[in-house]
Design a protein that fits this description.
The structure holds two protein chains of two kinds.
Chain A (H helix, E strand, L loop, with lengths): L6 E2 L4 E6 L2 E6 L1 H7 L2 E5 L6 E2 L4 E7 L3 E5 L4 E6 L2 H4 L3 H4 L8 E5 L11 H10 L3
Antiparallel strand pairs in A: 1-2, 2-3, 3-9, 4-6, 5-8, 6-7, 8-9
Chain B lengths: L37 H5 L16 H12 L22 H7 L2 H4 L11 H18 L3 E3 L5 H18 L6 E5 L5 H8 L3 E5 L9 H7 L4 E7 L11 H10 L3 E6 L18 E4 L19 E3 L11 E5 L2 E5 L16 H37 L15 E4 L1 H4 L5 H10 L6 E2 L8 E4 L7 H20 L1 H5 L12 H6 L13
Parallel strand pairs in B: 2-3, 2-4, 4-5, 5-6
Antiparallel strand pairs in B: 1-7, 6-7, 8-9, 10-12, 11-12
Classes of the chains: A alpha+beta, B alpha/beta.
């Protein structure tokens, strides 16, 4: 369910680091709780994200939720496909539904995040 | 379209589609004065020739169109309207009779103040009664609705703190809050910090204590909160905030649980709004507009919006000379017709009657809670005030969610409860009956919910396909949100 090479937050975001670059998205559990996503608001390329800072919003038929940055970094790319196809967040949250790519500031910030096994346990403990 | 069903349920064309070019619903007498060209009299730039697509119909067609549409509505005048957090109580006809008194209905905001003394006395009296009910020192009637009241209240706090040379940047908000609370704080320029609830469903005092520092301007709290639970530590919450120079804002959306029983001013609230369209029985939603008066303690009074009503030797006047005021928040003096109705409600009930309404509202919510507690999961078991919050946990294993149960309620003849809110309860059913309902109506509602719970066990598809007694069955909510069609356009071929 949860890719082992990703790291996860308690707010249900994932981050996938390769070298100095990282992709960020929301987890399968997050999209399941939100229900059908109808709108995604993302930052501009060049925005500086702080770890744990809100950087965008996801709107579903039920609620509007902030998205928090798992780690800090400069936004190098945003997933433009989500503007017309927000349903990608529901159908492929860990792949085509990625939100932003970052040039990361400090890889040691990853150490505070959960691995896939820890995240699966965390979700189970939350009753999900 | 051919006619295949009775009027009340037939599919109704848009008024634009009913239009026939050149059709008019009136006949004017011959002109008996010299004709004047509109563009010469008004200036050509002020004159419009045609309005594209303007519907042209006869009087009976437009009356039938809107009357038919009105029969598709559900209304408090038809039955129980249990939308949690909305306080959909009956709007007494006495309010309407009073609001139609000639001197009130024909009052004009540009009337000289000497000739508007009665209207001004209505405002002054309502301000005083609301202040007394809330346990506060002063009230402004200007804000046009609850969220507008919130913004006004937070701007008052900001002005007060700035006047102390102590501008701060953070507003604390419990995770059970109405969504308008963080939106208000953000619009007013504050950073929002969320406070977790404890297992009882109320503010966690340790989390609050850890979050309060000298950057905190205020806490925004709803009491009772959105779980319908009274924040029993509210006096300590207020003391904790005041010790650090922060203010306590109360969202008064749930005042229907407190009027005549407890006063926010007595438990430490500095500023709050009241929803006249909830607690004080004025029309709600389409019957609106609303009104969200703001009540404050004396230290915030100098900052209230202008004008304020002043009285000298028995004469009332509008005082605009208030140098510390945050300024106007609305044109004129608030939604005056709504204010009249709220005052009529207060005077018709008196103090004892208002207190009885509160006690009945709490009794009704607890009667429903007790009635369905074996059928639906109750995530927080602290005592309920004016509303009760269940979750779909027992039903979700059969594939039925809160939204499905709500739609099935429509088939039973009731308006749905509030769905999926508050957010801290996953799959919430939020039910607020208000004091309006008799035991007989509550029993019908309880029977409906119990029957739906049985259907979920025996025939979940019945619930998943609901509603089936309505004009249209399930609509595609997701597609409507993703690809909304907001503007009607005439067919390209003119057909």
């Amino acid at each position: 369910m949860y890719p082992p090479e990703y790291r996860y937050t308690k707010e249900h975001e994932w981050v996938h680091v390769s070298g100095e670059s990282a992709a960020v998205g929301i987890t399968h559990h997050a999209q399941d709780q939100l229900g059908d996503v109808v709108f995604v608001e993302l930052p501009d390329v060049g925005a500086k994200l702080q770890a744990n800072g809100a950087f965008g919003t996801v709107e579903s038929v039920k609620a509007v939720s902030d998205i928090y940055a798992p780690i800090g970094g400069d936004v190098t790319e945003v997933n433009e496909a989500l503007i017309d196809m927000p349903e990608l967040l529901n159908s492929d949250p860990h792949g085509a539904g990625w939100l932003v790519r970052l040039k990361i500031f400090d890889a040691t910030e990853l150490e505070a995040l959960m691995n896939a096994g820890e995240y699966a346990e965390y979700v189970a403990a939350e009753g999900g | 379209m051919s006619k295949i069903r009775r009027h009340q349920t037939q599919n109704e064309l848009l008024i634009f589609e009913r239009s026939s070019p050149g059709k008019i619903g009136y006949r004017l007498p011959p002109l008996d004065v010299p004709a004047v060209a509109a563009d010469e009299a008004l200036g050509a730039e002020n004159v419009r020739g045609e309005i594209a697509g303007f519907p042209e119909v006869s009087e009976v067609e437009i009356i039938r169109h809107f009357t038919r549409l009105s029969t598709w509505n559900y209304a408090i005048d038809l039955g129980l309207y249990p939308l949690g957090s909305c306080t959909m109580k009956y709007n007494p006809r006495l309010n309407e009779a009073v609001a139609r008194i000639e001197g009130i209905v024909d009052a004009h905001p540009y009337q000289p103040q000497a000739l508007a003394q009665g209207a001004m006395r209505i405002q002054q009296t309502l301000e005083r009664y609301l202040a007394h009910i809330a346990g506060m020192d002063a009230v402004t009637l200007q804000p046009a609705a609850g969220a507008h009241g919130e913004l006004t209240g937070i701007l008052l706090i900001r002005a007060y703190l700035q006047s102390q040379g102590d501008a701060r940047e953070v507003v604390l908000i419990p995770d059970s809050a109405h969504g308008t609370n963080p939106a208000t704080a953000a619009i007013a320029g504050y950073k929002v910090k969320e406070i977790a609830s404890n297992e009882r469903g109320t503010i966690d005092m340790a989390s609050l204590a850890a979050a309060i520092d000298d950057s905190v301007a205020a806490l925004m709290v709803t009491n009772p909160n959105t779980l319908g639970i009274f924040e029993q530590d509210i006096a300590e919450v207020a003391a904790l905030l005041h010790d650090r120079g922060a203010q306590l804002y109360m969202d008064g959306a749930n005042m229907n649980a407190l009027v005549g029983v407890a006063r926010p001013g007595d438990f430490g609230v500095d500023v709050m709004h009241l929803n006249l369209h909830k607690t004080f029985s004025t029309p709600h939603g389409g019957g609106g507009p609303g009104a969200g008066p703001v009540a404050v303690k004396s230290h915030l009074e100098p900052f209230l919006p202008v004008p304020r009503i002043a009285e000298e030797a028995g004469a009332l006047r509008y005082d605009h000379d208030r140098p510390r005021s945050i300024g106007r928040v609305r044109a004129f003096y608030g939604n005056f017709g709504v204010l009249v109705r709220a005052l009529a409600y207060i005077l018709a009930h008196g103090g004892d009657g208002l207190r009885n309404a509160t006690l009945d509202a709490v009794l009704n919510a607890n009667y429903i809670r007790k009635g369905i507690e074996n059928d639906y999961h109750l995530p927080y078991d602290a005592p309920s005030m004016h509303e009760c919050v269940f979750s779909h946990n027992k039903q979700v294993a059969r594939g039925v969610k809160t939204g499905d149960i709500a739609k099935r309620l429509i088939d039973y003849g009731f308006h749905p409860y509030t769905v999926s809110f508050p957010l801290i309860v996953h799959g919430a059913l939020m039910i607020e009956p208000t004091e309006t309902e008799s035991k007989a109506e509550l029993d019908l509602f309880i029977d409906a919910l119990k029957s739906i719970a049985r259907e979920v066990e025996t025939d979940p598809q019945l619930v998943l396909r609901a509603p089936q007694t309505t004009r249209t069955s399930r609509v595609d909510e997701t597609r409507a949100a993703r690809k909304p069609i907001l503007i009607w356009e005439p067919p390209a071929n003119g057909a």
